[in-house]
Amino acid sequence: MKFLLVLAVLTAVAYMSAHTQTADVAVKKRPMQIDDLFKLKRVADPQISPDGKHVVYQVTTVDLEGNKSSTVLYLAATDGKTPPKQLTNPNGKKDTHPRWSPDGQTVLFESTRGGTGQLYTIQPFAGGEATKITSVSTGAGTAIWSPDGKAIAFVSNIRPEFSELPFAEADKKNAEADKAAEDNPVKAKTFTKLFYRHWDSYVEDKRGHLFAITATGSGWSEPHNCTPGDRDAYPNSTTFSVGDDFTFTPDSKHLVFAAAPGDGSEAWSTNYDLCRVSLDNKGTKWETLTADNKAADNGPKFSPDGKKLAYRAQKKAGYEADKWEVYVVDAKPDGTFAGTPVSITGKLTDGAGTGAMSLDLAVNEFVWLGDNASFLFTADVAGSTQVFETKDGLAHQHTHGGARASLSATTGGNKWLAMTVAGMDHPPKVMVCEPARGIEKGVLFDPNESLLAELDRSRPESVSVKVEGGDMQMWILKPPGFDPAKKWPVAFLVHGGPQGAWEDGWSFRWNPQVWAAQGYVVALPNPRGSTGFGQKFVDEIAGDWGGKCYRDLEAGLSYVEKLPYVDKDRIGAAGASFGGYMMDWFAVNDIAKRFKCLISHCSVYNFESMWGTTDELWFDEWEHQGLPWEKPGKYAEFSPHKRAGELAKHKTPMLVVHNDLDFRCPIGQGHELFTALQRQKVPSRFVNFPDEGHWVLKPKNSLHWHKEVFAWLTKYAPPGGK
Length: 722
Hints:
Blueprint: H1 2-19, H2 34-39, E1 42-48, E2 54-63, E3 68-77, E4 85-86, E5 95-100, E6 107-111, E7 118-122, E8 131-132, E9 141-145, E10 151-158, H3 167-183, E11 197-198, E12 201-202, E13 207-216, E14 219-220, E15 224-225, E16 246-248, E17 254-259, E18 273-278, E19 287-288, E20 297-302, E21 308-313, E22 325-330, E23 342-343, E24 348-350, E25 358-359, E26 363-368, E27 375-380, E28 385-391, E29 394-397, E30 403-409, E31 417-423, E32 426-433, E33 443-445, H4 449-454, E34 461-467, E35 470-477, E36 488-494, H5 512-517, E37 521-526, H6 535-539, H7 548-561, E38 566-576, H8 578-587, E39 597-601, H9 607-613, H10 617-623, H11 632-637, H12 646-650, E40 654-659, H13 668-679, E41 684-689, H14 699-716
Parallel strand pairs: 24-29, 36-37, 36-38, 38-39, 39-40, 40-41
Antiparallel strand pairs: 1-2, 2-3, 3-4, 5-6, 6-7, 7-8, 9-10, 10-13, 11-12, 13-14, 13-15, 16-17, 17-18, 18-19, 20-21, 21-22, 22-23, 24-25, 26-27, 27-28, 28-29, 30-31, 31-32, 32-33, 34-35, 35-37
């Protein structure tokens, strides 16, 4: 407790110092350095207390020298009159996913402080240390409370063959099997079905199951597996996850959850259904609530009075980028439907007073707003993520600019909201507000305030580029110390997805602010396929990666080249995933000669081999409109490897980054690309991280990645104004 007291005092001093800077104390600003990315604290998952008076949230600190990070929980009063205080101390480990008990007296969270992730509780207003409440050999996480506060449900990845046994016996067998695999010098893996690996790890035949514990007179009961059987009761793809993907029913006796396809088609189907089981369920057959929809359903949330259930759903089976809509259905206390689900966001009208303009918005996340008639949701809008309120078919946009996420709202009469707010010039910070008084007028909690005050950060400029059929939005970010009388080099960045967007937000991986600080004008186009510009704009890239989207990017490049302050002889391009694909496509087309260098990170180079080696088959099969032997022409049409001979024609220097644990765009894609480059004597360099997946996440690896990328850019398109 002495440590926490001293830390609280230091935090208070830092808080007061940050808020007492006066205008006559000039702060000399400097360009952002790569190291600053690791000095900045990473804020996430704010959770508002039931009475709206406090918010608890995660703060992650990176230890670059130790090549690790630690996450603690902070508690802040929503009136902003006192500094936030550190709530937990995981001793260098990670405390995550805080959730308030219904009475607002206890915070439930997951911690790795003991090794495997387990559940803990702490009473923030009573003092004392955290209490461990689970000991599950396979770990426990993503926990939530029941409405009556007498039960907790959580996720654990277990071997399904033991799932119908009593918990103690099943847990022992899981532990023994894990230990045997770890000790066995033979590391062979055997698979009998697809989806045996996800993103960057082998899951083999393990399943994500839901467990429940109930309150006893002396603590908590032994966990019970509520979803036994050989099926995931939790999304096994993050594509179909939207935070807490399961919920207790209003009677606190059942669970409603988003379950992966249960017919063996997990690798090629997007048919995630809402299912329902009782807390004491022992059967392997679960009731399906959304069987009529063959596309994805997820994110169930009951209304404050328990009479309605809202959830997200798509309509097109097999299409992961289809528009997400919120459906609402009358429900009974046990979670069963008492009516027919109705989409309430599929056709929205602007509620700002015009009453005429229709809004084509895809819902990212949503929360009920203290009653049964309205709720808040976030949606991508023109290169940003904004908060909307919808009621009676009208949508009112509460925010403008930046990126909002992680909504958490009170469910009683006192309406309070917490969320993260980020921009291209600042990482996420916590905002709390009363929506009735205006969401933009909230109180902010930002642990990076002092460091950010030192940095010369630019705000992005949004420009409109004429493309076939309309316009394309593009961000332009200028470097610190920008002088419009000089000529500047350009970093032309293509986002991944392809159904994604460059937003006025923040990333600790591909951070435009850091690229600009190297001495570059950064161009961030949102071509066909980008989200936030209507579903038609998203859909137009399907089966046409090298078509309209490519021509949109050509138009964006032409726009940039004509800017009076741009040196068109110093332009480099870079991208990851789909963005990496576009680097490969640039390299085999005439546009290549307009770039001094290309940087391709974890790209798709060969559509034909990609299909047989990636983990999520539904993506390729939708994008190419069938299987490779059914649509060979579609797999070949825009595949860079089919035009590999063009690499020698243009000889644009290329840096290739690809990682061994990337199962989304597997390592062979990088090998094939680099081999083709080297065989034709194109200046090229291959950087491989054997311990990373699709992203480079370990601190020292990330530092090395940035140094490699910027060194390549500097070599061929030197930075700075001239």
